[in-house]
Amino acid sequence: MRIAIAITLLALGAVLPAAMAQEGDVQALIEQRHQEMKANGGAMKQLGGIFRGDAPYDRDAVIKAAGILSKHSGTDSAALFPDNSLEHSNSDARIEIADNRKRFEQIFSDLNAGSKELADLARSDGSDKELRALFSKVAKTCSACHTDFRAKN
Ligand code: HEC
Cys-Cys link to 43, which of 1, 35, 65, 88 (CB 3.0-4.6 A)? Predict the structure, then answer.
């Protein structure tokens, strides 16, 4: 009996810190993706102001904001959403991501490609019309993903 308890305690001692370490990693990923998404939100707000005409067209600002979006997208960003971090307290990432990885990753790579294209177009003095069209294509990647994979607040 005593041995069984000792073994159980030993087993718990080994498992608990591992589980806690894992939970710490998950929290760090959640924190990181929140920061990235907030940065994306700031970049889109700035671009939205420019393309709606509320703020003057500033080529360098467009290039910089598009650079923020391309940094926070693609496969690196998709990797911040492992299965054990979904449907988690203090996260709005839905469990549906686990069953639709390909689509989830595809939208992140569309955002990555679109934002790089936007920066290139701004660098090469693309027309207002072209820039605006590309901006709205990029904006659609945000809402496409949020509609399916982010819990409604
Ligand atoms: C491929 C999916 C995907 C794409 C693309 C995407 N998001 Fe998100 N976004 C999410 C998910 C999932 C969450 C919820 C994350 C969480 O709570 O852990 C989120 C959360 C957010 C948040 C809230 C962050 C917080 O602190 O709670 C903001 C703001 C945001 N996204 C902005 C954007 C903008 C702007 C874009 C486009 C430039 C974008 N996102 C593109 C999936 C995506």
Answer: 65
142 Cβ below 6 A of ligand 1:
yes
Q: Is any ligand 1 atom within 6 A of the Cβ of residue 88?
A: no
Q: Is the CB of 33 under 6 A from ligand 1?
A: yes
Does domain 2-149 fall into CATH 3.60.21.10?
no
Residue 1 reports pLDDT greater than 60: no
Spacing of C-alpha 130 from chain mean position: 26
Q: 47: Cβ below 6 Å to ligand 1?
A: no
pLDDT tens for 83-130 read 999 999 999 999 999 999 999 999 999 999 999 999 999 999 889 899
Q: Residue 127 pairs with which residues in a beta bridge?
A: none
Q: Parse the chain into domains and list their residue ranges.
A: 2-149
* Type of residue found at 50: I
